[in-house]
Design a protein that fits this description.
The chain has about 80 residues and is of the alpha+beta class. Helices cover about 40% and strands about 25% of the residues. The protein has a three-stranded mixed beta sheet. The longest helix has 16 residues.
Length: about 80
């Protein structure tokens, strides 16, 4: 899951080397925290949040397939 979201994020930004994802487990859910360079935050979020929402939907589908729950957070 982490690698998949990292791949998508690297394709969206201008500075792919600045993309980092940390993985935590809280209350039985996997929380992925995505961090990118400041100028690229808007590209990850997208217009009206569509890019971020699309990544969240894909992450939820992958997690459900594995019998888990996952959340994506975009850190500033």
């Amino acid at each position: 899951m982490k690698e998949f979201i990292e791949y998508i994020a690297r394709q969206l930004v201008d500075s792919p080397d600045k993309v980092t994802i940390t993985e935590e487990e809280k209350e039985g859910k996997i929380v992925l925290k995505l961090r990118v360079a400041d100028p690229d935050v808007g590209k990850i979020i997208g217009r009206k949040g569509r890019s971020a929402q699309a990544m969240r939907v894909l992450l939820s589908a992958i997690a459900a397939k594995n019998g888990k729950r996952a959340i994506l957070e975009v850190d500033d």
